[in-house]
């Protein structure tokens, strides 16, 4: 495994691996403080690609002024151990000045998809994500790029960008990885107190219960599902709901409150963002109501 | 010369030429209705590149709602003759539905540089330019891309985009090509009546006179140069000035009104946009005042 810290080294290393004719190049962009979710991305990349590049960069331009950019957890030594163990060939760890040698004036802005969910709560967040991901794509020129579906909106936004701008890369979404008790893995879980950690289980539990209730026909409409999600989450006194939404996926378009979910064409996402103290957690479940209906 | 009309054909053709090992690939993006200015871009591309790709596409998203998108002149047969004569290897002529198969939601937005000059007069114009150029870059993956300096702000904006987003292409700016009497070549010149055509000479004349006046020390400050430009242009009764500006190049930052130009570091642009009837013409002159000062 090769660790590179400059764009020039990265280009050289990626070019060399491509020249070695080892098959497609895969990119796994991360903000570090790696966990099993990231490991699953590396493993998936290893299945498809001959060369796996991982980037580790806490990207300042995707954080709002009152967000946790400074506090975001970092542990380079441990990250490099995990990357090596999970088969990364090249790890790119740039300094902020390497990624942004001067004030960046060019942004990639995806409209519509970014107005809801995390886009509404975190203005400018997705512009920062699309811009840094486009930069990484241009540096590495990967054939495939791997992203976790915990950030489902991010996956939808990046796919839109790639399609709209004819980028030469295929976005590969990978399933959410969870703790044994259901909590979705996140680098931000480290912020949680023991009590918050326990109560945070309401996220995954509310999603499972809402999904079962739809499957069993106990709830039918968007409004009913949303109310069920909110009532389960509210059973945790520490939970402060940012959003609990039911939208089409990957278009992220809202459904009428009285719309019967089983009539939806294609996939539906139930998406949550909930604060526990100063920690904001997200989780989601994507499913196809038609399949549920066919089973009933 | 190969004429292609779909993105897939274009990718195949460019890939084939690259595989043939003929050296760098050059792209000349145009809106067609080609003239000697475009021909000079093709010739410059032929000097540097083994394969020259020209695109001809009147890009709807860079026109404002009250601009001349519909009326913009088109003549495919003549364009193809010129492209062949000037050595293009591949000409890409897509339909609008090929470039925008669905509503485009992703835009590349360059700030600061786009707030002045044509950016102020044509809101959204440069977002449309950067977005379509990025799409073409992703389709062709050129090593070099050639743009005329008549659109000097466009060159500055595209360079900013390429640098900020780490795009793998070098922007090559090419000198303005003029008629014998000084009028800068433009596809829009065809809109001009005989009388407008004659009076439009004030653009290049005002730039030449202002440049001489600075060289000879007859005018010194930004305000004086701007006044000189405006007074020469106003000698034409049909001229309606949109802007006449003196800025740094390529940063496009304004200079104080009482700033003595000979003290400027680097290059200065005198940039004009003037309407004649319904036709808006632009022209500019880029020079280095220090060089002028050294001659005095």
UniProtKB/TrEMBL annotation, chains A, B:
GO terms for biological process: pantothenate biosynthetic process. Beta-alanine binds at residue 62. Its EC number is 6.3.2.1. The active site is at 38 (proton donor). (R)-pantoate binds at residues 62, 154. ATP binds at residues 31-38, 148-151, 177, 185-188. Its main location: cytoplasm. GO terms for molecular function: ATP binding; pantoate-beta-alanine ligase activity. GO terms for cellular component: cytosol. It is found in: Cytoplasm. Signal peptide: none annotated. Pathway: Cofactor biosynthesis; (R)-pantothenate biosynthesis; (R)-pantothenate from (R)-pantoate and beta-alanine: step 1/1. InterPro entries: Cyt_trans-like (IPR004821), Pantoate_ligase (IPR003721), Pantoate_ligase_C (IPR042176), Rossmann-like_a/b/a_fold (IPR014729). Keywords: ATP-binding, Cytoplasm, Ligase, Nucleotide-binding, Pantothenate biosynthesis. The reaction proceeds by a bi uni uni bi ping pong mechanism. Homodimer. HAMAP family: PanC. This is Pantothenate synthetase. It comes from Paenibacillus apii. The lineage of its organism: Bacteria, Bacillati, Bacillota, Bacilli, Bacillales.
């Amino acid at each position: 495994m090769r660790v590179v810290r400059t764009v020039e080294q990265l280009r050289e290393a990626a070019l060399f691996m491509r020249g070695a004719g080892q098959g497609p190049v895969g990119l796994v962009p991360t903000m570090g403080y790696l966990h099993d979710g990231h490991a699953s991305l590396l493993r998936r990349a290893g299945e498809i690609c001959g060369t796996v590049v991982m980037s580790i960069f806490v990207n300042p331009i995707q954080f709002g002024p009152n967000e946790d950019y400074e506090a975001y957890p970092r542990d380079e030594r441990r990250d490099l151990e995990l990357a090596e163990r999970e088969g990364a060939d090249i790890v790119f760890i740039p300094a902020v000045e390497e990624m942004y040698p001067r004030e960046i004036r060019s942004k990639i802005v995806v409209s519509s998809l970014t107005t809801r969910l995390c886009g509404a709560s975190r203005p400018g967040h997705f512009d920062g994500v699309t811009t840094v991901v486009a930069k990484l794509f241009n540096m590495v020129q990967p054939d495939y790029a791997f992203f976790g579906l915990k950030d489902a909106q991010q996956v939808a936004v990046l796919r839109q960008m790639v399609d709209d701008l004819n980028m030469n890369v295929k976005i590969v979404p990978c399933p959410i990885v969870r703790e044994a008790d259901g909590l979705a893995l996140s680098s931000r879980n480290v912020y949680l107190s023991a009590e918050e950690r326990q109560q945070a289980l309401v996220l995954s539990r509310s999603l499972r219960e809402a999904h079962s209730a739809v499957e069993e026909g106990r709830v039918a409409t968007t409004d009913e599902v949303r109310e069920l999600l909110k009532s389960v989450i509210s059973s945790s006194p520490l939970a402060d709901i940012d959003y609990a939404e039911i939208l089409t996926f990957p278009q992220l378009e809202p459904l009428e409150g009285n719309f019967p979910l089983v009539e939806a064409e294609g996939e539906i996402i139930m998406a949550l963002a909930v604060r526990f103290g100063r920690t904001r957690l997200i989780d989601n479940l994507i499913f196809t109501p038609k399949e549920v209906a066919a089973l009933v």
